[in-house]
C-alpha cells in the first residue's frame, strides 16, 4: 500500500493539468456557439454577386449614394474604384444606423471606417454588407485599406454626422 501513495499523487497532478486543458476548448466552443447562434454575431458575408463590368446598369450601384430607409436608418450604395469611393462624402444625422452595400468595379479594394467596427473587403463581383451606428456628430474618415495600385493612398472619403434634426441630413444624399 505504501507504494500506491506517490502514484496517486502523480495521478492528481496530471488530472489538475488535464481538466483545464479539456475545459478550455470546451469553454471556447461554448462561447462560439453562444455568439454565433445566441448573439447572432457573424462575419460579414457575401450579400450577393454582381457583374463588376455592368455596375452602371445594376441597381442599386447605378445610383451610388445615401438612401433613407426609415426613421434614423440609412443605406449607402457605394462603389470602390481606382482610386476613389462613390460616394466619397456621406451625410447622415447623429444617431443614424447606416448599412453599407459596397462593391468594386475593378480591383480589390477595402472599406475601413476606423471610428466603427467597419472593416470589409470590396471584391469585384461581390457585394459586401455591413452596418454601423453614428451617434456623435463629427467627421469620420474612411479609407481603402487593401493595396490597389499607385493611387491607393489617395482613396478615402468622409462621413459627416450632423447634429440630429438638421433637415439637410434627414433628407440624405
Ligand atoms: Cu482602393 Cu486601395
Features:
disordered C terminus, binds dinuclear copper ion, 173 residues, 11 strands, elongated, 2 helices, six-stranded mixed β-sheet, alpha+beta, three-stranded mixed β-sheet, 23% helix
Q: What does this 3D model show about the protein?
A:
With 173 residues, the chain is of the alpha+beta class. Helix content is 23%, strand content 38%. The chain contains 2 helices and 11 strands. The strands form 3 sheets. Strands 1, 2, 3, 4, 6 and 9 form a 6-stranded mixed beta sheet that branches. Strands 5-11-10 form a 3-stranded mixed beta sheet. Strands 7-8 form a two-stranded antiparallel sheet. The N and C termini lie far apart (85 Å). Residues 169-173 have low confidence and may be disordered. Dinuclear copper ion binds at residues 80, 83, 109, 144, 146-148, 152, 155.
Task: Annotate the secondary structure layout.
Blueprint: H1 4-38, E1 46-49, E2 65-70, E3 73-81, E4 84-86, E5 89-93, E6 96-104, E7 109-112, E8 119-122, E9 126-134, E10 138-143, E11 156-162, H2 167-171
Amino acid at each position: 500500500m505504501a507504494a500506491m501513495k506517490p502514484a496517486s499523487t502523480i495521478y492528481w497532478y496530471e488530472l489538475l493539468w488535464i481538466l483545464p486543458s479539456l475545459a478550455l476548448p470546451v469553454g471556447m466552443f461554448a462561447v462560439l456557439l453562444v455568439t454565433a447562434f445566441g448573439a447572432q454575431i457573424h462575419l460579414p458575408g457575401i450579400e450577393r454577386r454582381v457583374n463588376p463590368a455592368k455596375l452602371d446598369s445594376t441597381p442599386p450601384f447605378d445610383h451610388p449614394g445615401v438612401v433613407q430607409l426609415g426613421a434614423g436608418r440609412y443605406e449607402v450604395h457605394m462603389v470602390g474604384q481606382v482610386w476613389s469611393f462613390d460616394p466619397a462624402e456621406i451625410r447622415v444625422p447623429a444617431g443614424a444606423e447606416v448599412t453599407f452595400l459596397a462593391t468594386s468595379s475593378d480591383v480589390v479594394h477595402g472599406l475601413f471606417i476606423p471610428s466603427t467596427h467597419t472593416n470589409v473587403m470590396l471584391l469585384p463581383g461581390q457585394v459586401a454588407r455591413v452596418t454601423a451606428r453614428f451617434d456623435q456628430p463629427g467627421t469620420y474618415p474612411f479609407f481603402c485599406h487593401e493595396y490597389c495600385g499607385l493611387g491607393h493612398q489617395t482613396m478615402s472619403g468622409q462621413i459627416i454626422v450632423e447634429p440630429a434634426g438638421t433637415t439637410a441630413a434627414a433628407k440624405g444624399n
